[in-house]
Design a protein that fits this description.
Number of helices: 16
Largest sheet: 3 strands, antiparallel
Strand content: 5-15%
Strand order of the largest sheet: 3-4-5
Oligomer: single chain
Shape: globular
Helix content: 55-70%
Number of strands: 5
Structural class: mainly alpha
Length: about 475
């Protein structure tokens, strides 16, 4: 029997490149709902990438094994501790099925995190073994930035363009098989995305689109700062322009806040590099001016900087209700401090943090009589029950605390949260000038997380950066 031919390194590299692109910017136009259209392609790309990297290692690419020194061992141990804590919190969660699957439009349950940790270390293995070159990695990131940015612009003019098989159609729900009793929501697409969440680009929500654009923009900015080429500056400007149109302050903060901190560091430690950083801000100012143009044409109402100081008197309104979410999150933390409530912990913890019969009684449905008590229903549901035995769903306005740290500690507790932060910290400690794009992406991820949360759309970019940060320095020489 003839010996089977083993795949060549270029073939494996091509598979990894396509898998990476799918993981960062994939979309399935024929899918159903958030999971099928936006989540499944990303998870499929991550799985294919991890499998390809494993194949590369097994084939003994370049005849050497990856380096596993202390710089790798501690992050590996921390990521394993995070997963173990996540598994324990899922098993002990009052709603374990939800903890496994994650929230439908976000896809961040234990299933995703197990795949995400594998993806991060697959990036490390692919780079260490030479299956994927640094140039190939950067090429996939820059192409993903282009695709995300170009997908946003058409939605500025028509929010119903969502790149699915039902593109342009609005949401219609029928209550009978004959479709005679139907209700149309003109402010939602047939794919299930509300008008207020547009533009979404290649994600299920404009907040996720902003996070992806911000982190990809930071990759491009880091490459430009290392090698100031006009093409990189142009591509950065394309991403910055699209980011403005998402009208998401968290994404704006992630990109420009990270670059502002870096510029201050340049001014203090390395003034000769400040000129390149200022070029990025000049592009940002020009792109913001172009962002205002559709507002003058009546196409889109822009979010202007002066509004940022206009509503500080109503801090919760200014924060889009986040202050109230954070208060409830802080109240829930002591209830299950060590292992949390399982992934998507805020949605599990919120009803237990509400004082239904006291200061929060306004939240109780009017059909119920006080006092009410909380009752565990099916895995995904919690009910309020009044003295007559009437049960109604406990209202939970948000599934997330909109803060990475609060969501993290509510989900996996102090043990899992500390392990995850240790992983990030040790990886950042190994940052260098050669790894600048990845350090910027992780810093942007943390700033984005001040008002947002992990998702299958944004988090893989941070995990990719974590995998690249712990690779050997010589891999990046001459790139």
């Amino acid at each position: 029997m003839p010996r089977l031919a083993t795949p060549s390194r270029p073939l494996l590299g091509g598979v990894l490149f396509l898998a990476l692109l799918l993981a960062l910017a994939g979309i399935n136009p024929w899918g159903q709902g958030h999971e099928g259209v936006w989540n499944a392609p990303r998870e499929g790309g991550m799985a294919l990438f991890a499998l390809g990297a494993l194949v590369g290692v097994l084939l003994g690419t370049r005849g050497r094994s990856p380096s596993l020194g202390w710089g790798v061992f501690l992050p590996l141990l921390a990521s394993a501790g995070f997963l173990l804590a996540g598994a324990a919190s899922t098993l002990l969660s009052p709603q374990p099925v939800w903890s496994w699957t994650g929230y439908p439009s976000v896809g961040d349950g234990l299933r995703f995190w197990a795949l995400g940790v594998a993806f991060a270390w697959a990036v490390f293995l692919a780079l260490e073994t030479g299956v994927l070159s640094p140039r190939g990695l950067f090429g996939a990131l820059l192409l993903a930035l282009s695709l995300h940015a170009l997908a946003v612009f058409p939605q500025v003019w028509d929010w119903r363009l969502d790149y699915t098989q039902t593109q342009g159609q609005t949401y219609v729900r029928c209550f009978d098989p004959e479709r005679a009793d139907c209700y149309e929501n003109p402010n939602a697409t047939a794919s299930g995305v509300h008008r207020g969440q547009m533009p979404i680009g290649l994600t299920s929500h404009r907040g996720h689109a902003a996070g992806a654009l911000a982190l990809l923009g930071l990759f491009a900015a880091g490459l430009y700062l290392q090698n100031p080429r006009p093409g990189l500056l142009l591509l950065f400007g394309l991403g910055a322009q699209a980011l403005w149109f998402t009208q998401t302050r968290g994404g704006w903060l992630a990109l420009w806040g990270t670059l502002a901190l870096l510029a201050l560091w340049f001014a203090w430690k390395c003034p000769k590099r400040l000129r390149s950083a200022l070029a990025l801000f000049l592009v940002g100012a020009l792109s913001y001016g172009l962002y205002l143009v559709p507002g003058q044409m009546g196409v889109q109402e822009p979010r202007r900087f002066p509004e940022f100081g206009a509503s500080f008197a109503e801090a919760d309104a200014y924060s889009s209700g986040r202050l109230e979410l954070w208060r409830k999150a802080l109240a829930a933390l002591p209830l299950r401090p060590w292992l949390g409530w399982g992934f998507d912990g805020y949605a599990r913890a919120y009803p237990h943090a509400v004082d239904w019969n006291g200061e929060d009684r306004r939240l109780v449905p009017v059909a119920l009589s006080l006092p009410v008590r909380l009752v565990q229903g099916e895995d995904r549901l919690l009910y309020l029950e009044d003295p007559t035995g009437l049960r109604l769903l406990a209202p939970s306005p948000y599934a997330k605390a909109h803060n990475l740290l609060l969501d993290l500690f509510l989900s996996v507790g102090v043990l899992g949260g500390a392990a995850y932060l240790l992983w990030l910290g040790v990886a950042l400690w190994q940052a260098s000038w050669a790894k600048l794009p990845f350090a910027l992406a992780v810093a942007g991820y943390l700033l984005y997380g001040l008002t947002w949360y992990d998702s299958v759309h944004v988090t893989p970019l941070a995990l990719l950066a974590l995998g690249a940060l712990v690779t050997r320095e010589e891999i990046w020489r001459g790139v």
